[in-house]
Amino acid sequence: MALKSSTGAEYARILSVAGARGSRVVTNDEMCTMIDSTPEWIQQRTGITERHWVAEGEDAETLGVDAATKAIERAGLQASDIDAILVSTVSHYQQTPSLACIMAEKLGLNAPAAFDISAACAGFCYGVGIAESMVRAGSATNVLVLGVETLSNYTDLTDRSTAFLFSDGAGAVVIGASDAPAIGPTVWGSKPEASRVIEIDDWRTVNPSVEGPHIHMEGREVFKWATTAIVEKAVETLAASGLTPEELDCFIPHQANNRITDSMLRHLKLPEDVVVGRDIIQMGNSSAASIPLAMEALLESGQAKSGDSALIIGFGAGLVFAGQTVILP
């Protein structure tokens, strides 16, 4: 007797994208009342002019539910149509239950597969890769993938090298069946020997009622890695999709730092007409949420349109990375 295996759609695609941002806008001027810096220096070093933080009554759950609700509606689906939810976050305040399970209840989903992903700034692309495989394998039909972060809660305002970077937001996509290829192969991996280059304090070593836990980062090491190894992986990701740089419409990297994006563009040698996501200018670095937020912003501004091809790649704490070439919803 032979076992049966599950089979699903031949292809998968992103059906919709939506986002939510913390409602408190913190300008560089305000930021410089908290840290020893200047607005000009922050903008020159990162491109950031302002960032979004959660206000009273907002948290990872509220942002995630807001983004997810809009994504489901934009896909033309009901909550009952979602049979899996994947949430990438490093901001959730409990090891268990997962934020995915909490959100499934709040969204009224019907007993979906639900789990969190801990891959920091690469987590959204990890989720896209997993969801695409689930749809094609037949283990799910419509997968809700989110990146949700409230990094302001982990920002060390005594660290002038990182305090101005981080922000709060949620980005969501629904991934379902497609009649044609619309999500290219996932290229992913890690650099485990650099696991401490970006980290959040060990809970065993801090007293949260006094301070922390906080994010810590060796910025120069991250910059070097992102502008060398990750550029190579971006080239590999595009090549794996079968597209050439001349056929690419958009480049939407993790919104880590505008200088990193500029350096990646120089090395990638993309045509000048490729649209580049630069949501970091008004948003700051929202980790797992940054790529879907930047994707939504490009579509809403008209800079990108449905059916465009986009190279997406996330990279961050772990160190980990993941990327795909996708067709925009």
Please give a handful of descriptors for the protein shown.
single chain; 329 residues; alpha/beta; Peroxisomal Thiolase, Chain A, domain 1; 2 domains; five-stranded mixed β-sheet; 10 helices; 30% helix; 24% strand; ACP_syn_III_C
SSE map:
Layout lengths: L10 E11 L2 E4 H4 L7 H8 L3 E4 L6 H15 L9 E5 L10 H9 L5 E5 L5 H15 L5 E8 L17 E11 L8 E4 L7 E3 L14 E3 L1 H8 L2 H13 L8 E4 L4 H11 L6 E2 L3 H4 L6 H12 L7 E8 L3 E8 L2
Parallel strand pairs: 4-5, 4-6, 11-12, 11-13
Antiparallel strand pairs: 1-7, 2-3, 6-7, 8-14, 9-10, 13-14
Helix pairs in contact: 3-4
CATH homolog superfamily of the largest domain: Thiolase/Chalcone synthase
What does the main sheet amount to? Answer: 5 strands, mixed
Strand order of the largest sheet: 1-7-6-4-5
Proper CATH architecture of the largest domain: 3-Layer(aba) Sandwich
Share in β-strands: 15-25%
For this structure, the quaternary state is single chain
| Cα end-to-end separation | 43 Å
Cα shape: globular
CATH topology descriptor of the largest domain: Peroxisomal Thiolase, Chain A, domain 1
Beta strands, count? 14
Number of domains: 2
Mean pLDDT: 96
Helix content bin: 25-40%
Query: What value does the Rg take, in angstroms?
Result: 19 Å
Count of runs of 4 or more consecutive helical residues: 10
Low-confidence stretches: none
Would you list the SSEs in sequence order as H and E? EEHHEHEHEHEEEEEHHEHEHHEE
User: CATH first level of the largest domain: which class?
Assistant: Alpha Beta
SS-derived structural category: alpha/beta
Keywords: Acyltransferase, Cytoplasm, Fatty acid biosynthesis, Fatty acid metabolism, Lipid biosynthesis, Lipid metabolism, Transferase
Organism: Tessaracoccus aquimaris
Domain Beta-ketoacyl-[acyl-carrier-protein] synthase III C-terminal: 238-326
Domain Beta-ketoacyl-[acyl-carrier-protein] synthase III N-terminal: 115-191
